[in-house]
Amino acid sequence: MRLLFAIKSLALAGGGAERVASEVAGMLARRGNAVMMLTFDRLGYPPFYPLDPAIERIALGIGDVARRTGKAEALRRIGAMRRAALRARPDVAIGFMHSTYIPLGISLLGTGLPLVASEHISYDHYRGRPLQAGLLRLAPWLAQTITVLSEAVQAGFPAALRRSMTVVPNPVALPGARADVAGSERGPRILLAVGRLEPQKDHAILVEAFARIAGDFPDWRLRIVGEGALRPALEAQVLRLGLEAKVELPGAVADIGREYAAAQLFAMPSAYESFGLTTAEALGHGLPVVGFADCPGTNELVRGGVNGLLAAGQDRTTALAEALSRLMASPRLRQELGARGPASLEPFAPEKIADLWEALLSRIAAGDRRGRGG
Question: Which of 26, 37, 204, 223 maximizes the CB count within 10 A of its CB?
């Protein structure tokens, strides 16, 4: 098949959807499909996550990908995407994230080229964002199907959208190395969190919870890997709590595997997740995970008392601090829970996810106007 993937940017310090777009495109290219990757980045951009050399890159170079898109810029991008798609003539186009699949769908109107809209966030993101929610409702009219990452995430969308959705989870490759969850006698122990510094991830509650227990664990450090708009607020919070020597904010890191391997415990403080890719990666490295029991995405991957702990209670900060403290105090419990993490990811093996993508795209390329296979 000829496949045209599209995402706003791969040049910026990336998030989960960008990494998955690169991985899925690469998996399908290695299976012999002719794969193209369209972005709004400038020509010659170095991708933050590596792209398979077999993938043809189409960089439109329109606008500043680090800023919100204006109306005139959006119209220019729609026109450029239409011209690029007509030149490429893919069997299927795949747009990652609503910021791309909505304009891509509009650009394909009247071309006869089918579209898969790949959604990577739960509907909670759209609450309080009426413009984005309104544009999202166009998706069933623009795309043959909308992929979402789990049945639980699908259930959270309005019925009109659910009927157009197909569940395709993210791939999670198991690393060769495992984390030393007990920790060496020398050096600090690391409580790791990975994710964009945005409100959804709620790193502020993690910093607050860590502050409550940091005095009990002088050999532990909190390391929050990621970049985003909330960096100034988090830095100010760390200073206010007197945690400058205990909390690290290194920014985005390309070699994320090294971060997992060096940690002893993983925290996912998010209010909501669509899949929890970093949670899955932590489990794959044999790290026990602490998250919230009411967080979609987290509560599908983490099984309390099996491969991690799920905090619950009205006082979320206290609940999180207690769960973290329990594991920080017990190397044996960290080892027991961490050892069960890799096996829990078997349903997300890359080959299985590649099979799902290839089957879905083959059906759509063959003329199935919905492409849904359950």
Answer: 37
